[in-house]
Every structure is written in C-alpha cells, then in structure tokens.
Amino acid sequence: IKNSIATLAPYFNNINFVDHIPNKVIESLQIGIPIITTIKGTLKEIIDKKEIGIFIKDEQNLDITKVEKIISDKQYRDNLKINSKITYEELFDFDIAYEKLISKIIS
User: 35-37 and 7-9: which strand pairing?
Assistant: First the structure.
C-alpha cells in the first residue's frame, strides 16, 4: 500500500460496507494514502468532510476525471495524503479512540 498513489475501495453499496469502514481504508489512512471509492454512506461522508479521497460513482456513471486528477496533480494528491494521515489520527488511532471511549464511559 505504501507505494500507492491511492487505495481503491470498490465495494458494493450494501449494509456491510455502507455503514462500516473497511480495514483496508483504515490501513491506508494510517500511512497517508488517499481513498478512491464507490461506497456511499459513512465512508463517502468522511471523504467529503475530511477531503481524504474521492467518490467516483453516481447513480449511472463513473467519474474518471477525479481519478485522473489524483494521478496528474501532485499538489492535490499531497493535500489528500496530509488529510488522510490527520483523519487517521483523529478518528482511528487506537490510543485516541481508547481515550474517547473511556471518557464516554466515565461521564
């Protein structure tokens, strides 16, 4: 994964993936690799909010121009990489997630 420009997460839009984040995505974010996906739901919301990758499919079409931009625009790609690492630390880092869980349990 570490030598990749981005991680492709082409899962089906079903309950197993729409409401959950695949492990491959979390591992990619940990090392700063942007995500390319067709999954709606939680992953798309994080991608849109945190700017960590691209969503490439609407109801009918794949938007290949977004993929081309990741490949050709180094500054855009570098921004996605930075955002990916930050997002991992904010949402998925074990120590931080554990602290949040303990805080909720105590309060």
Answer: parallel
Average pLDDT over residues 48-77: 89
Say what the pLDDT of residue 60 is. 66
Gap between the Cα atoms of 69 and 45, Å rounded: 20
Q: Which residues pair with 55 in a beta bridge?
A: 37
pLDDT number for residue 46: 96
CB 46 within 8 Å of CB 20: no
16 to each of 40, 81, 91, how far by Cα in Å?
11, 26, 20
Q: Find, among 26, 32, 10, 17, the residue nearest to 94 by Cα.
A: 26
